[in-house]
Structure formats: structure tokens, C-alpha cells
Target: Citrate/tricarballylate utilization protein
Amino acid sequence: MLDNTPNLQDEAARQFQICNSCRYCEGYCDVFPQLFALPEMTAASATHLANLCHNCRGCYYACQYSPPHEFDLNLPAVLAELRQDTWERHARPQALARVFHSHGVAVAAALIAGFALLFFLMATLRPESGEGFYAYLAHNAMVAIFAPAFLLPLAGLAYSLRSYWREIGGGRITWASLRHMGSSVARMKNLSGGADQGCNFEQGARYSNARRYAHQATLWGFLMCFAATSVATLMHYGLGWEAPYPFWSPPKLLGVPGGILLCLGTGALAWLKLRADPELGAARVWGGEMAFVLLLFTVSATGLALYAATGTGAVPALLAIHLGAVFAFFVLTPYTKMVHGFYRTAALLARR
Model:
């Protein structure tokens, strides 16, 4: 399987073989039908299956061969480790991905604090003109700072995703795979336990859709915030309508509910993660995963706080913290768990 992790290779091969013999979990998610349909297990197949997995853990709690059975199956943890290895191998530079996943909270906090201090110092050199946030930091300065911070990590992410697609032999995208991917992403079908009953992520004996709903809130909240920024850009450059915008304008109607959804979704994900067994995931990177969730929460929470503080003396400090969090999020995107959405989408498109 994966040449650089021989112990993980052997363990994954052993567990896949037992699962293929049992086949009890065939209807749980996309992983098992594709595992059972494989003529042979290869490194590319293992990588593909790992990125299809949502770590719902239903298969572990239903498995008759999980501990204390002598077979000692823990497929969610093996797939999580394979998935983590995939992200780290394809990231450039790889070392930065490893550092974040090992020390995510410290790295994210340091970057937010450093960038926030930089933006606060810049805000002391207030532009001669400008309204709203642009009274503290000129629009052109924001564009000059954030355009590279967004585009360069995006290019790095595209490179790693291309490398991953080649590894799994993605091939030609079909209309059927597009429909399947759209349905799976929109409904979070693979977090439904196979029968819309939910998964066992936080507690083995309890089925719940809590994680599914938290993921949906996070996804749609993030997309609404991104849409708000995109619409504001079009309004600024295409219509000459410059910020600040009133509440009933499209950027606010998208951004405020999106920020609330993002706060609720990431807050719920952090709470569920605290309740769940870390040994059923990639335990070594638990801190990095939690750091990513908290980073997204910080971005949304500071954005809402900044909007609420409009016109008050708290704006300069809140603006610096919010911009620092957004900048840190952009810079770290190729190295955080943000990549899982892109890799999982690619895995769904490449379904065999």
C-alpha cells in the first residue's frame, strides 16, 4: 500500500481483508461497496477509500471483530491515518502540514496574534478617506495584502489535489459521478448511517444526526460567507457600489446568517469532538483537527462581533483580530483539515 508507512500498510491490508470477508457494513456508506468491488487492494485504492470515509464510526460500533475481539479491528482509525498521510504527502511543503497537525492550536494562535498585531499597527496609519472598515485600512491595501494570501495557498491546494487525483487514477468525470457527488455533499449522506438514523460519532450506543447537521451548518455557513465576499467584490468593481453596505444589501443578507451558521456549526463540531473517543480517529493529530475547527469559529465569531461593534471604539481592535484570523485561515488552508472537503469531493467524483 503506502510505501512510506509499512506498519500502517500491513495493518490496513489485514483489516480490509477481514472486512471483505464479513461484509456486514455494506450499506453504511460509500466506503464498503467500493471496497467489496475491488479486484485487488492497491496503494491507490487504499488512499481512495480513506478519503471517502467520514469517520462516523458506525462500522466500529457495529463490528463483531472490534476490541476486545482478537481480530482487534478499528477501521475508522486506520482510514483516518491513511487519510492524514495522504494530506501530508501531497502538501507542499510537507513539513508545514506536519507541524500544523502536530501543534495546530499553538501555530494558529501565534499566526492570529502576529497578524492581528500587524493589522492593528497598520490601522494606526489611518487613510485620509474611507468609510466603515476602510476608514482604518484602505481598500487597496486590503486587496494588496489578501489577494496573494488567498490565491497562493489556493494554487498550492490545487497542486496537491492534482497530485492526489493522479495517485488514485481519477480519470474522466462522468455525469453520474457528478450527480452522486452533489447528492452526497449537499445531504451529507455518508453521515446518515446508511438509513438516515445518524451515526455513532460521539457515543457508541446512541445514533444521532448531530454531527451531520453540524457539518451542514459549517458547510453552508462557509459558502454563504464566501458568497457574501464575492457579491461585495462584484458590487464594488462592477457596479461602483462601495462598502459599507446596509443590512438589507446582498453581502449582509448572505454574510450575517452565514456567520451565525458557521459559528453554530463549528461550535457544535468542537463540542462533539470533545465527547468522542480520539482513538477512533487519527489520535496523533487531534490537536490540529481541533485547531482548524476553532480557527473557523474565530473567523466567524470575530466577523459577527465586528459587525455588531460598527460605529464604536472597539472597531480597530476587533478589525485587527478578525483580519488576523482570516489571514491565518487563508495561509494555513493547504495544511489544515480544510483540504478534506476538496479531497473527499474528488474521491466521490472518482468513485469506482
Remarks:
- DSSP finds 14 helices and no strands in the chain.
- Residues 98-147+191-335 form one domain.
- The mean pLDDT is 86.
